[in-house]
Amino acid sequence: MKKLLFVFVTILLSSSLFSQENLPKDQLTPGFHKGRREAFRQLMPSGSIALIFAYPERTFSKDVDHLYHQNPDLYYLTGYKEPDGLLIIFKDKQGKGDTAYNEVLFVRKRDPRMEIWTGRRLGVEGAKSTLGIAKVLEGKDFPSFPLDLKSFTKVIAEPIQNDVRTDKSGYDLYGLMQAAEKKGLKTSDDNGAGEYANYLANNFDFSNLHMAKEYSNKLIKKNNSWEDNKDLLELLNSQDSVSYERTKARILANPSGTHIYNDIVKTLREIKTPEELDLIRKSARISALAHAESMKAIKPEMSERQAEAIHTYVHKYYGAEGEGYPPISGVGANGCILHYEENNSIRLDNQLLLMDIASEYHGYSADVTRTVPGNGKFSPEQKAIYQLVYDAQDAAISLCREGGSFAKVEKKASQILSEGLIRLGIIKNASDVSKYYPHGCSHYIGLDVHDQGHYEGLKANMVITVEPGIYIPANSPCDKKWWNIGVRIEDDVLITKTGHEILSADAPRKWQDVEKKASEKSSFKSISLPKL
Ligand code: GLY
Ligand code: MN
Ligand code: MN
Questions:
Q1: What is the CATH number of domain 25-182?
Q2: Which of 465, 466, 493, 504 to mutate to test the pocket of ligand 1 (most atoms within 8 A of CB)?
Q3: Which of 50, 158, 273, 476 is the most buried (most CB within 10 A)?
Q4: Measuring from atom 5 of ligand 1, which residue has the nearest CA?
Q5: Which ligand is nearest to the CA of 464?
Q6: Residue 1: predicted pLDDT
């Protein structure tokens, strides 16, 4: 009787009760992910194999986990959103005839009783039908899956992580990684030294090696084990260009599996497909609309967290799952802390509020910053700094087009900021600009907020941020009228063949437009909740 009841409950739970209705219609399709796997396979060296693991689950408190976030690479290649997964891509077909395969996805098994607690699982059949992947097995089948990694020309994978927890089942992520190690997957025993040697060989010649020396020696000092990497030391200690080129050729002829993995991922993910652009457009627009709403609602007696909450409400209102990174809502001195995340100041007063907040929409993160005075009106000093950052951003954006480069965008922003700071009497020498502008101007966005890419020339269908800023903390060596002014303006820019498109343009950017928006009526201002 008990057994019958269990079977009945299992059938009930695995069918109608667990199917989902009314899901968003604009998710990436199985066809998209299949296309990405094909593109990945194209770039693999002949006779190689690639392993892509799910991200680990992380503890939030005792028996509660952080909201799970999939490894963006695995999501990109499969659409699988659950933990304890592993995708294997083979360059060549394995086996013969009808049963031949060139990819396998290992997934969590269905567990109706657990699914009542922790949510739906696709399981093998669900993964086949929902993700459109032909060969799907349960994680528990991986240890016995016939696979000798030593028989492949290259094993393309990130190093196995050593901080993954285990449920001791033997086939959670930890179990999958251990089984992979038994099959020949290497842990990163050189602690990244080989990867760094590859980077140097790829990016430097003997003539400009001196530019990398000081930084490289610092890294070697920091990572003791790097002193054991023969390639790296030989490269850095080359006495002439002939010996440098010889070592470089040797390193480049035999790149590590990790290097190949990163190279493929960067090549694919830096150029967005039309399906990805649709989602990034939405994410950027939603984030920009949230910034516009927060501008309308701003008032001196508002808290940093209340400002943040307007963004998160608007994101979810438009269907975003959440934010692409922890929201930064910092007023005055807090706005001068680049990655301020406490957001616990209870009043804005008339100081500048720097909001670096953006949504993650179906996996794709935008990255938008606006800086707004708490009372809706810039003071003369706030306005001077804001206008300078605006000018730097506008000039940098004008260089965004196919054929441009990150280096040119970076240089332009830095040049305008340094000239402006000298003009305002805040610095004396252009080289001091980094004191008040200590970060870069641009990065890719996508499935990661700091997305993967080679950071070389700009090409059509890349999406990058342009985000100069100036931060003048109290006690800086300048007139104290400038203290505690922190301004960043950050937009998401699509590179096109002929120029660019600002995807976050719905958030006002000119100081006049910010003030105008701040004077508009806000629905959030009329929200009235009981006093605590
Ligand atoms: N929000 C992180 C960044 O701007 O890079
Ligand atoms: Mn950014
Ligand atoms: Mn940002």
A1: 3.40.350.10
A2: 465
A3: 50
A4: 450
A5: 2
A6: 46
Each domain of the chain, given as residue ranges in start order, spans 25-182, 193-255, 271-526
Domain spanning 271-526: CATH 3.40.50.2300: no
Q: Rounded to 10 degrees, what is the CA torsion of 355, 361, 363, 365?
A: -30
Residues with Cβ within 6 A of ligand 1? 325, 356, 367, 449, 467, 490
C-alpha distances in Å from residue 158, one per residue of 88, 151, 174, 185, 261: 13, 19, 15, 10, 7
**238 alpha carbon to ligand 1 midpoint, in Å?**
38
Structure tokens at 307: 């400002």
Q: Is 521 left (phi over 0), alpha (psi -120 to 50) or beta?
A: beta
Q: Give dist(CA 454, CA 445) in Å, integer.
A: 13
Q: Which residue, by CA, sits nearest to atom 4 of ligand 1?
A: 367
Supply φ then ψ for residue 52, to 5 degrees.
-125, 115
- The model's pTM: 0.93
For residue range 174-195, list pLDDT tens digits in order. Answer: 999 999 999 999 876 677 888 8
Phi-psi region of 376 (alpha: psi -120 to 50; beta: other; left: phi over 0): left
249-288 pLDDT, tens per residue?
998 998 889 999 999 999 999 999 999 999 999 999 999 9
CA 508 to centroid of ligand 2, rounded, Å: 18
Q: Scan for tokens 């269907």, then name that residue.
A: 319
Give, as residue ranges, everything with CB less than 5 Å from ion ligand 2. 367, 465, 467
Q: Which amino acid appears at position 4 of this protein?
A: L
What residue spans of 370-405 are helical by DSSP H? Answer: 380-398
Measured in angstroms, how far is the CA atom of residue 159 from the centroid of ligand 3? 28
DSSP alpha helices (H): ranges in 362-507? 380-398, 406-423, 433-436
Ligand 1 centroid distance, CA of 367 (Å): 6
Cα(512) to ligand 2 centroid in Å equals: 24
Using a 10 angstrom Cβ sphere, with 0-12 exposed, 13-18 middle and 19 or more buried, the burial of residue 119 is exposed
